[in-house]
Design brief:
Radius of gyration: 24 Å
Structural class: alpha/beta
Strand order of the largest sheet: 2-3-4-5-6-8-9-10
Helix content: 25-40%
Distance between the termini: 9 Å
Length: about 400
């Protein structure tokens, strides 16, 4: 693994994540639980390392997308509650019960399957009921004419044998968008969610232990939505406009090195398709960082990467394993020089904007062949290379 670190690597600052957790906790208050979203390998940051940190600092729940992600955490010593937000095949219910993993229930068919399997296993599956208030993806549909049947369906699921309905939740679609229309939509979603909870609890005579709906946008903008628990994602890792306004710290820095330097005359086409041609004698630095490492090809010829002498413009199309930067006026940048792809000096938010995407896509895109190096107090505490060796 050591031999790969000077190619391209990601540095993850666990102190930044701990700091962000503390700042978000200060904002939401001590009585509101904190669910850390660590699905998709903690958005590329490392679910085990981030999960262990959140358990250490006192977070209340973790959220993942699948049973495999949940089990990965369990077998690596994480004992805190874990919620699976996505689908789990009924055949896995026994494992969920054995490993004390909570499952989202999104419709009657899922509730029936999970109930039957739990009874077959002779155990109790803890569940959180998902309500579709306007995301139009998963959950019991309860808006408009569907309110009555949705409420009855949720009550039915809560009372099925083998299921313990600990929580109920929904997901906001536009809480991170600005404008009267978006604000109204989020407020409608929250009002509907609140009405559903009230109706279900009144008819059952039982209150949910955990009600949650606040994602990053809602944590930043709609404190009335905090309820019993919040689910910040982008905020936790320190990216985006809301994180910047709250003074949070980006957790990941991507770095590479100059592997080769070539000098080309004017009129030379650089990389595939010849979309960039030199207009003078040009010094090109070749970097071992391409779309197979997670560098979105849509950024070809659009962005800059940061060298010790400042920003260097990307030239030509991004290749699978390489890209090229213009270092004509940077004679101090040589073979072996470090280049920051994104981090403190080269904002991931800027790259995301140029790629017409969100920072999450860039961190999630960091591939398994890119080693992660974990820091606490400025010292390397762990290294991870996902390749099988």
């Amino acid at each position: 693994m050591e031999s790969t670190l000077r190619r391209t690597w990601a540095e993850v600052n666990l102190d930044a994540i701990a700091y962000n957790y503390k700042k978000i906790k200060e904002k939401i208050g001590k009585d509101v639980k904190f669910l850390g979203v660590v699905k998709a390998d903690a958005y590329g940051h490392g679910s085990i390392q981030v999960g262990q940190l959140l358990q250490e600092v006192g977070a209340d729940y973790l959220a993942v997308s699948s049973a495999d992600e949940a089990l990965e955490l369990r077998v690596n010593g994480i004992t805190m509650p874990i919620l699976i937000l996505g689908h789990t095949p009924k055949e896995q219910v026994g494992r969920l019960i054995d490993y004390q993993i909570t499952q989202a229930v999104t419709c009657k068919a899922k509730a029936e399957e999970y109930s039957a399997e739990a009874r077959k296993c002779g155990g109790i599956l803890k569940v959180h009921i998902k309500v579709d208030t306007g995301m139009s993806r998963l959950g019991y549909l309860c808006d408009g004419e569907h309110f009555g049947t949705g409420v009855e369906g949720i009550i039915e699921a809560c009372e099925m044998p083998g299921l313990d309905a600990e929580g109920i939740f929904t997901h906001f679609a536009v809480a991170d968008e600005f404008g009267p229309e978006f604000d109204a939509y989020t407020k409608h979603q929250f009002a509907l969610f609140s009405e559903v909870i009230e109706a279900v609890e009144k008819k059952r005579g039982v209150k949910f232990a955990i009600r949650h709906c606040a994602n990053t946008g809602a944590v930043a903008r709609f404190p009335e939505t905090y309820l019993d628990m919040v689910r910040p994602g982008l905020l936790l890792y320190g990216y985006g406009e809301f994180a910047h306004k709250m003074g949070l710290k980006p957790a990941m820095t991507m770095k590479t090195t100059v592997s080769t330097i070539k000098i080309y005359p004017a009129g030379t086409a650089i990389s595939y398709g010849g979309i960039f041609k030199t207009d003078k004698m040009t010094r090109i630095g070749v970097l071992p960082y391409g779309y197979a490492d997670g560098f979105l090809r849509s950024l070809s010829n659009k962005c800059s990467l940061y060298t010790k002498e400042g920003p260097a413009k990307l030239r030509g199309k991004i290749c699978m394993d390489m890209c090229m930067i213009d270092i004509t006026d940077m004679m101090g940048v040589d073979v072996g020089s470090e280049v920051e792809i994104f981090g403190e000096k080269n904002s991931i938010d800027t790259l995301a904007e140029l790629a017409d995407t969100i920072p999450y896509e860039l961190t999630c895109a960091v591939s398994k062949r890119v080693p992660r190096v974990y820091y606490r107090d400025g010292v390397v505490v762990d290294k991870e290379l996902m390749l099988r060796m």
